Amino acid sequence: MLPISSTDRVFILCGAGVSAESGIPTFRGVGGVWRNYRIEEVASPYAWQRDPRLVWEFYSMRRKVASAAKANPAHFVLAKLEQTLGERLFLCTQNVDNLHEKAGSCRVIHMHGELFKSRCDTCHRPPFDDSHLYEPPAEIPRCPCGGQIRPHICWFGEVPFGLNQIYAALDECTIFMAIGTSGVVEPAASFVAHVRGRARTIYVGPEHPANASSFTECHLGNAGQVLPRLFGP
Ligand code: OAD
Questions:
Q1: Which one is the CATH code of 10-231: 3.90.226.10, 3.40.50.1220, 3.10.25.10, 3.40.50.2300?
Q2: Reported pTM
């Protein structure tokens, strides 16, 4: 078990590995999403300009996979941890699925956006809940302002969401844990370097991430097995 004192503040950074045991493919590695799709063709402002239907086809496919997925023990352990620690837990995920919420987490920062939300590509109308599958030959839906409705996702070349809140929480945390993330995508890959020397830094996943040297501890194994050991079932 991981000792957490009453003054500790815990920052958790999740990556695709947390949802792997729910059947949602990771991005890199065998069977990864980026083995079958080119990032610049489906997940970039350039892709949206060039072929918005292809972009919607990609996110509709991912909506289908995610809507069939169930939360796994890793999500449930983190939801329980929120109940125990309250505000002293900051849960930040790079995942766009809603499995943390399905497991009962209430305060999740989705720094790369949310798969089941859309927004206008032109005006500042807030993102809205949307689980439609926009598959051809459907037209790209339009906002009343005339703009096109796009997925509420942070694409490559765009700025992640919630960075002010995230850096404030990093500055306060005493325990930093990254789970199931390969440590190659910025800025998330550098969060551990931001807190190193000040917070206990822990990695959980089946293999060492690219930024492993910045962690004081690596617990190798699947999140669904390691997290119940660290935090209780
Ligand atoms: P990656 O696909 O790069 O890495 C997934 C990590 O999960 C790998 O290090 C695996 O070892 C690990 N893993 C696999 N199964 C696991 C399990 N059962 N338990 C724990 N870990 C496991 O995914 P991310 O690092 O999340 O961005 O990728 C970061 C970002 O790159 C994504 O949010 C996405 C992607 O391009 C956008 O789309 C903006």
A1: 3.40.50.1220
A2: 0.97
